[in-house]
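thread: overnight batch results

M.L. [08:02]
morning all. the overnight job finished for the chain we discussed friday. pasting input first so we're all looking at the same thing
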Amino acid sequence: TKFCFDIKILLAKYSVHLRKKAEIMVPNLVFIEPYKKVENQSMKPQILEYPLDCNAWNKTNTCPRTYPKSYKPLNPNNSTCPEYFRWIHEDLRHWKNTGITREMLEKSKKYAHFRLIIFDGKIHIERYAKYSIETRDLFTMYGIVQLLRFYPGKLPNLEIMFDTDDRPVIPERKFRRPDSGPPPLFRYCSDWQSLDIVFPDWSFWGWGETNIRPWRSMLKNIKEGNKRSKWKDRIPFAYWRGNPLVSHVRKDLTKCNVTDKQNWDTLLYTQSFW
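M.L. [08:03]
and the structure it wrote out:
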């Protein structure tokens, strides 16, 4: 399974491949220019805080107008690319020669939970009848809205289809001809046999149904917990909670649970989300 956790990178890389067929996509598209790699140049992280105002959203169903509209990086001359940028070309190599056409995009619709369009810094959503497990689709949209707040004025106009289910659905074997036109579909995971384009997992921003807070908050809690109890003083138990029905490996894992005949120092809990 492949994962990438920088949304700005994923949306930027997708927009580059829309360039070749821009005339059949949203008019007047604005694209981010390709990044240039510069060796031996330091990059200082910039932490931005533009929290979403949920109360304002509940009243108007729109985001407040008080958010900034421009982004000023700490080091504007820095154009260093992380090493993992090379995987951008690998993920999108299937559309390298043809670009992404409107026809390809629309073929993704039958798999998608929603269509997302960014135009002039605003997000537009078209939801489909396909059921999204719990609030995965909502948290995914939240992540992109948050991205717009972190990098105001930097996201290009674009249009994507998104499937919030777990398993990839675009098999590579069906699109090996040069003119096969595979549908570009974003989802949380993919593999070497599939063409689904990976996107950060929705739980990065929290998982309300399981009382899991955003990863940033969880990391802070974990660090505080580590200070209260040293590893050498902890009880050696393995803990896991999840749905064992989606994987043979998970089913095998449940065999290690504690019973009246065995105790392998494991605490395994089944949680189904259907």
